[in-house]
Amino acid sequence: MTVTPVRFPALDGYVLGGFLHTGADQEPVHAVVFATGGGIRAEAYRHFLSYLASHGIAVLAFDYRGIGESRPPQLRGFVAGFEDWAEYDAGGAIAWMAARYPKASLTGMGHSIGALMIGASTTATALTQLVLIAPHTGYHGDYAFAVRWMVRFAWRVAGPSLRSAFGYFPARMLRLGEDLPARVALQWAGYVSPEMPLGIDDGDHQRERRLLDHMSSLHKRALVVSIDDDPWATENGVRRAMHAYRNLTIVRRVIQSLPGQTKLGHWDFFRRRMSGLLWPFALHFIKSPSDQGRHTSALAAEGRSYEHDAAQT
Length: 313
Fold this sequence. Notes:
By secondary structure, the chain is of the alpha/beta class. It has a single domain (2-139, 209-312), classed as Rossmann fold. 30% of the residues lie in helices and 22% in strands. The chain has eight helices and 13 strands. The protein has helices at 46-54, 82-100, 114-117, 145-166, 182-189, 205-217, 235-244, 279-287; strands at 2-9, 15-22, 30-35, 57-62, 105-111, 129-133, 168-169, 180-181, 221-227, 249-256, 298-301, 304-308, 311-312.
């Protein structure tokens, strides 16, 4: 198994950085494009992605512009928004992997808000399927209380003065992940009602609506993994994210923490101790034939098709 630093163009030409995880197969049958959570570096997922690569899957994990390997020399005043991360960055990563492995079945995988980024670009039509882990939309009201007050304080109380002083949002200083471009932080801070806000900070309302329409129009199968004690991707948050993908056929796995055990939360799915417990069913879904989907009954809700398979760990 090999991990290779790579650089490739986003759809608008901005050069992104990331890591290509590969196994022994020169022509893999399966490939994955992995979209990280907001403010989380691609390198942080290396153990899980290397696990997939060790089973013959080529995996590209990339950093959004402004983050990690894609951070410019000067973040102050750097202009980037969620729409750039979704349309240009995730879109460019999909296009790059599709060109590099044209014969492979290409899966789009996203964690947290990366679950939205991976399906918004027009290049998402090249994906065979999706794997969405702990998806949510970033709406503050869906977070558990302990997270909700912290986020609102960081974004709306401390955020304006910090963005003004630094020219970006210094998330590292607040232990909220990687530093964020000011526009991304402003968009996140503005998501205070269930309706996804469009056009914040003089953004292109029509462009953002077009990205949401792309997500809504995707007809793919998807594995959706959530954890019952996750304070970020709560059940309401997961369902709100799935509402954006109203035409997916979804296999749902809800991971339940056992009484007396340490909570899993938003991140523990990716810890190495889960390699034999949680990672295999994601691997199986990626490698399984496209007609899989016989896990239980389908649920019809708001025009969406759900297949629910609650897995207890």
